TrEMBL record:
Domain EAL per the UniProt entry, residue ranges: 31-285
MF GO annotations: cyclic-guanylate-specific phosphodiesterase activity
Domain of life of the native organism: Bacteria
GO BP terms in the entry: cellular response to nitric oxide; signal transduction
Single GO cellular component term: membrane
Sorted UniProt keywords: Membrane, Transmembrane, Transmembrane helix
Subcellular location: Membrane
Protein name (database record): EAL domain-containing protein
Organism: Zemynaea arenosa
């Protein structure tokens, strides 16, 4: 009957997305499975954060980290965020999960600072639901108070899609967050329906160049031009700029020559479990990017 369903779906035409297909059924089943397990994951302590270093391109020092969520499911194994964040968003489960992420990241960062491992920023990704919550600013304020992390070391990563529904409302929320003294960045910059006009209206600090542009810097002249332009744009607006997904020495060299402030990517380090990240910090408080062989040894 799968073939019949497929045939009928085809006859109905490509735009008939509501029509049943076996593929949709698999996907729906996967979502139901993920949702059921996701409901129990927080209580069972199945989430962990990995931390990916952010490196100053002028000094080679690690100046920050991005906290990235991982789900260690006893049967499904390590589930990457791409497979469950969407479900968590649709079911509302992202609210408690996101709150756990922010608190854990802040606590961990404060512990590393107290242990003398450096005064580093920690960046946390925010979902659309979290951004829409009327409690957002109060929640962040409470995390800062409870953990004792000074606000300037917390960065919130936002995507352009969060701003689309109500710009005026978004401006209010961003000012509320900024008033706490934290940093705000635009993640995946250049991939959304970007309106450049918001850049001057929003109190943001950092642009994160999406890795799709960085990826082809040395092969694709227009991607290289886009990256150089974003760096100039950021600096003209007095914003800092970081490149995501840096995987090669060639990409690093291009970014450095064009004055990019920071980089994050597998070339320096993958996202690491907390203990490995701490070991990396201990091993090198200052890193000479001129010696990439060293990076591979510690990665
Ligand atoms: P993102 O915020 O843009 O995070 C960067 C992603 O790029 C991460 O994938 C990271 O592992 C990957 N990455 C870093 N360097 C490189 C590189 O050199 N090459 C390549 N190919 N990839 C690189 P990850 O951890 O799978 O996360 C995917 C997305 O899931 C994130 O994209 C973010 O949108 C979302 N996410 C992760 N953690 C959270 C969270 O705690 N809350 C929310 N709401 N979303 C999260
Ligand atoms: Mg991010
Ligand atoms: Mg990104
Ligand atoms: Mg391209």
């Amino acid at each position: 009957h799968a073939d019949i369903a497929m045939y009928r779906a085809k006859k109905l035409g490509r735009n008939n997305f509501q029509f049943y297909t076996p593929a949709m059924n698999d996907e729906a089943q996967e979502r139901v499975r993920i949702e059921g397990a996701l409901r129990k994951a927080l209580d069972r302590g199945e989430f962990v954060l990995h931390y990916q270093p952010q490196v100053d391109l002028a000094t080679g020092e690690i100046v920050g980290m991005e906290a990235l969520l991982r789900w260690k499911h006893p049967e499904l194994g390590m589930v990457p965020p791409g497979r469950f964040i969407g479900v968590a968003e649709d079911t509302g489960l992202i609210a408690p999960i996101g709150a756990w992420v922010m608190r854990t990241a802040a606590q961990q960062n404060k512990a590393w600072q107290d242990a003398g491992l450096g005064q580093l920023r920690v960046a946390v990704n925010l979902s659309a639901r979290q951004f829409a919550s009327p409690d957002l600013v109060a929640d962040i304020e409470r995390v800062l108070a409870d953990t004792g992390l000074p606000p300037e070391y917390l960065e919130i990563e936002l995507t352009e899609s969060l701003f689309m529904s109500d710009i005026a409302q978004a401006v209010d929320v961003l000012h509320g967050m900024k008033a706490l003294g934290i940093k705000l960045s635009i993640d995946d910059f250049g991939t959304g329906y970007s309106s450049l006009s918001y850049l001057s209206r929003f109190p943001i600090d950092v642009l994160k160049i999406d890795r799709s542009f960085v990826n082809d810097i040395d092969r694709d002249a227009s991607d290289a031009a886009i990256v150089a332009s974003i760096i100039t744009l950021a600096h003209n607006l007095k914003l800092s700029v970081i490149a995501e997904g840096v995987e090669s020495a060639g990409q690093l060299d291009y970014l450095r020559r064009h004055g990019c402030d920071e980089m994050q990517g597998f070339y320096f380090s993958k996202p690491l479990p907390a203990d490995e990240f701490a070991a990396l910090l201990r091993a090198r408080t200052a890193l000479a990017l001129a010696a990439p062989e060293l990076d591979e040894e510690t990665a």
